[in-house]
Amino acid sequence: VFFVAVCCSSVSTQFVVPPAVHVKAAAYPHWAHHHWVWLDHGGSGQEDCLNLTKSYHAHNITVGAVDIDSTWETGFNNFIVNTDRYPNASAMVEEFHSMGVRVIFWITNMIDEDSSNYKEGYDNGYYIRNILGKQGKVKWWHGKGSMIDYTNPQALAWWHKQMDNMLNIGIDGWKCDGTDPYILEFVEPKNYNGTSIQWHEYSDMYYGDFFDYTREKLGNDRLIMSRPVDGYGPLFVRFSPKRVMVSGWVGDQDDTFDGLKDALKRYFQSAWDGYANFGSDIGGYRNPMKPRQAELFIRWAQVGAFSPLMENGGGGEHRPWMVDPSRAEKITDIYRTFVNIHYSLNPYLLTVGSQALENGTSSIHPLARHESFMDKVIDDFNPDSYCYKLGDRILVAPVLDNGTFADVKFPDDGGNWTFYFDTSASYKGNGQRLKMHIPLHQMAVFVLDGKILTLNVSHPTPGFPTNPRAITAYVVRPDPSGDTTEVRTNDYSSSNGVGHELKYFSTDKGFRLESSAHPTTSVSWILVDVNEPIELERLRSVADVEYNSSTRTLHVHVVDNTRGSSLDVNFN
Questions:
Q1: Which of 2, 84, 271, 404: disulfide with 364, CB 3.0–4.6 Å?
Q2: pTM to 2 decimals?
Q3: Mean pLDDT within 406-421
């Protein structure tokens, strides 16, 4: 009653299910979806930044990247490391890499007039000119300076030579802060030959050059962090070109629940404008509350876990075990759980994010009514819902106050949505709204029934067996219509960009589970709310199988997927 075709011979070249050669490689590096941390202004420097990561590790919290914030240079922005604060930046980068942590450095396009490189640039005419035709100067939050002229080939070569000072020590990218709007102070900005430059034309050159030149020098596993859309008073402002938006953040917010709402408003405007991947500073960047509320911190961390980018840093205390020392263990445990959940979503996020980047869309899909930038000016943009879909098969409903209730709006899509933390609870996708009790250690997150959610459970995650070398195909209440999905991988990884195609479909007696051949990764299927298959022992002869009768969950792990696999799971 079981048909199982799993070819395990190392000699045979015949595939059970051929490799998914039609699946493109991921459009950007996988660590864009890791857990990032940072210290405001880098703390006291090199030792503090290293100790921050080590302290997370000591609390068994995985860190994938660290941002070395402003003040690492001897001057803004001369690319010369301040050795009083960072005695050996090259050794620091190597040590981070030895811990499996990527390193990006804060930077902008602005060169301060008291910086060591300013005079050379000024004397050679390397800066953007103002309405008077003179190289313009503006005051900004780190001093007074001028903006590099990216259209001037000689200026660009000069700029790149200075960038090489950091690229040569193997950094992984840049956090490009939002100084580009200052070009508006030049009234009619012009380049070196007198041609007018528009604001967003300049923005595209600024962010695009850091993105492109870094990847040209060091490879396509590098990236930049920059703003998609941010808000200033009654206005939302576009910053980066969409093609670089693999790990953006939506600017600076207060450490309040209103600040969390402000971050989500920027999520929505960024999504509606077609930016692919972004997140926000967990707990808020600014710190007027002093100290930061533990409930706010956790609720924001939960949003971060179910965002393309999960990053934590800014003003005040952001270390989970220090936010509320009286509840250090509880807060740290909850935070760790959501970091692990975020890591488990990496294959899904990388695939959804790559598709969004290629299609000019977003990984985030707000359920609120679409409001344009002008609508925002008119009514101050108060969304009718703060719920959003992450991709097409996860629904997120943040808790937005100090209580334990979430206002959940379900899509009017005709589907069924199952609570992530209790698969016995399923809700109709008929546009209904519910007030749901959500304790602090949970979040109102729902998975669309019948669809394959691709996971990599590399860290302990509630409800899932840990298997770091497997793609987990998670399906709640398999549907007779079946489903097919792809999984993107990076072309610089051991898989060489070879992706997966996973599908299931109904048969006369149950379901067939198929996975394309893959050279490095095995496949696990988890089917939720299904009956126990018949002749279970026969299936166990070709795969690791476990059925939990209390949760009605079937786990089938195909150990060798190098030739692909096709398994019939029969229920009658």
A1: 271
A2: 0.95
A3: 97
